[in-house]
Amino acid sequence: MSYMDGKKLEYKGEEALKELEKLTAKADEVQENILKEILLRNGETEYLNKFMVGSKDVSEFKQCVPVITYKGIYPYIQRIASGENSSLITGHPITEMLCSSGTSAGEPKMMPSIAEDLDRRTFLYNLIMPIMNQYISGLDDGKAMFLYFVKAEMSTPCGLPARSVLTSYYKSKHFKCRARDPYNDFTSPDQAILCNDSNQSMYCQLLAGLIHRRQVLRLGAVFASAFLRAISFLERNWVNLCNDIRTGQLDRTITEPECRSAMSIILSSPDPLLADEIEAICSRRSWKGIVRHLWPRAKYIEAVVTGSMAQYIPALEYYSEGKLPLVCTMYASSECYFGVNLKPLCDPADVAFTLLPNMGYFEFIRLGENGTLLMDVDEEEEAPMDKLVDLVHVRLGCYYELVVTTFAGLYRYRVGDVLQVTGFHNRAPQFRFICRRNVVLSIDNDKTNEEDLHKSVTKAKKLLEPYNVLLVEYTSYAETSSVPGHYVIYWEIKHCTSLQVESGTPLMEAKVFQECCIAMEEELDYIYRRCRAHDKSVGPLEIRVVKPGTFERLMDMFIHQGGSINQYKTPRCIKSNAALKLLNANVKACFFSPRDPKWNP
Ligand code: AMP
């Protein structure tokens, strides 16, 4: 029987767990069948025909179809977005384009998606509760306060929806018409989740969560950054929220009719006692442990806390007094959903995802220990086709870059994630997420690589020229100790003194550095600018000017720690506390971006 049997994708509870056992026990067979089925269904596409004319053979696929990055598929995506037939890349109608948080030429990458992808995603979501139930009992005896949000939606020139994978899911019947069971009893009404105005959505979701505070057993958001943003929003808005609860009247700033009507049901009568309780908790001087005080029955916080989100673990621990497990349940992307964490209560540092062999066809490029490519292949180019390893043939402890082939029309596509094999569940490998290839800075959905950072610094430093000031060195840091986090760029500058005395050279003012901040931001990619200007999930970029000689001291420090002088390169992003301390101790002045960068939906 086919592993893509629609019935099996609908499995829930115990049945879903049994299916997981079967899939992982026969991971090799399932993978082979998935690839055969993809080739059977998509063999006639223009894309595959270019490389394996008329053949649907698995071994020919492996020999002839190139390993690509977005550049390799982009022309086809563009043609489909403009109205050409989906059969360019897939045997199914493409129903939407999913905008990933990765960007290409400054625009979000668009990933093709077909109707049945929603079944595959739902299959993975349906595994989460059965897995959790193995470790925590009684989760059916209350509600979940999950803060989910939709993002602005666009459409392609031919009218296909272009939106984020989560927006697509929340707007689908799979989510909206889900069978009600005790495990998907959310405090947030769907209308609040689906509200396009993120402030109104957040307000209503927090209000609903506070009203049901004594029933809430599970807390969470997709990413740790979003959960912390909710706490910061609560800090600014708890007085109004309490007021609504006290009077039974929804704040007038909530204007979305659907939200208003959904919230009027929850906020049916004044509850001054509840308002007093919440007020007493929120007016404490310290918000340490606030999450546990507000939601005393909560058993865990669910959010992605791996990869770049690991930087938020200390803040989450602070707000939960380290007493609530941080649960990271899944690993997924716009291209394909990948896997689940079968030990959800493990330490965030030990999280490993078991790849589900029925999600797509997975291959792996072997990497060196620190995630560097072992093969002679450009970061952005094709990798040798014959050097890929199958899912069941990856080796314990080794590092790989994930490559995926999907029903929707991606073939041997480099996802860009670096993973390490940490174990096996039956025959399916388990991976620790190491990093996104190349990304140096990330606060929320933004992912800035070294090249983008360099480009934006290059643009900004031009503004120093009229002042005869040179940028000598720079590095960066993702500052997340306050919410929202922001990019900090350390600059060491040099006044060209001989020129400075020349008459007519204007004096540097703070305004110039502020203009440099905004110049950098305007040069950063679409997703960064959206996070800044629209989502407000990233704060204004900051330039910290350091004293002359600071970067030399930084180099001395790294060399003192065993680095080689010959090979020393200024790190473009600072990860070590000691380096950060050194830089911060030498800061002469700080400047922030004075306005939001331009962003067009
Ligand atoms: P997007 O393409 O915007 O859907 O983002 C998908 C990317 O987010 C993945 O390729 C990963 O780099 C990252 N990601 C998703 N899930 C996780 C996770 N559990 N831990 C770390 N990174 C993740």
Automatic annotation (TrEMBL):
The cross-references to Pfam families, in alphabetical order and at most eight, read: GH3, GH3_C, GH3_M
Q: Which cellular components does GO assign to this protein?
A: cytoplasm
Q: Which UniProt keywords apply?
A: Ligase
Q: Which GO terms describe its molecular function?
A: acid-amino acid ligase activity
Keyword presence, Repeat: no
What is stated as this protein's family in its record?
A: Belongs to the IAA-amido conjugating enzyme family.
What is the protein name stated in its UniProt record?
A: Indole-3-acetic acid-amido synthetase GH3.9
Q: Which organism is it from?
A: Nyssa sinensis
